[in-house]
Amino acid sequence: MKRSLSIRDVVMAATFAALTLLATFVLKIPTPTLGYVHIGDTFVILSGIILGPALGAIAAGLGAALADLLGGYAIWAPGTFVIKLLTALVCALVYRAIGKAGHKKIPTIPAIILSGLAGEIVMVIGYFFYNILLVALASGGINHASVMSAVSLSVAEIPFNLVQGAIGLVLGTALAPVFLKIFHYSE
Questions:
Q1: Under 8 Å between Cβ of 167 and 120
Q2: Which of 5, 55, 66, 85 can pair with 51 through a Cys bridge, CB separation 3.0 to 4.6 Å?
Q3: Which H or E run includes 160?
Q4: With b meaning 16 or more CB within 10 Å and e meaning fewer, what string describes 164-183?
Q5: CA-closest candidate to residue 137, choices 126, 149, 146, 148
Q6: What are the angstrom distances between the C-alpha of 187 and each of 127, 132, 147?
Q7: Are strands 36-38 and 28-30 parallel, antiparallel or unpaired?
Q8: What is the mean pLDDT of the chain?
Q9: Could you tell me how many helices (H) and strands (E) the chain has, helices first?
Q10: 113-127: per-residue pLDDT in tens?
């Protein structure tokens, strides 16, 4: 049974999109690969866990893509939207699946860690493939040589995405109990 969006739903989604945007945009550490590491994944994880799969995914994707657009990384915005949407979606689905597994509910912190870890794996893989696409297109098109070159350049980005994912997971795990209590919200 579908339910309609309430004003509260829209406000919550907008709040988490704004938190994701701010956490991504305000504190970013440039990497040697011309990207940046940020704490925005904290709110990508929290969006999925607190808002659920639909609203959480949209809020996370929108907030992160806006950070790219406003921060001068417009070429990354479409990929970021999809990748962060999928990250939050996986977080939400894993968190819900763990919570409903059998009749015993797994404690909140392990459930947050497992769902965040699953989501961040999606993020690392997503950016790896999106980076390959962008580098290959920038080097003249999709052919064997450009893809192989893109793969080698994209591998260099993985450690930075792992660091970003780990930071998001640690901060998200630390903040989740507070946010769950404050917002006491589920889709």
A1: no
A2: 55
A3: helix 158-183
A4: bbebbbebbbebbeebbeee
A5: 146
A6: 28, 35, 41
A7: antiparallel
A8: 91
A9: 7, 2
A10: 999 999 999 999 999
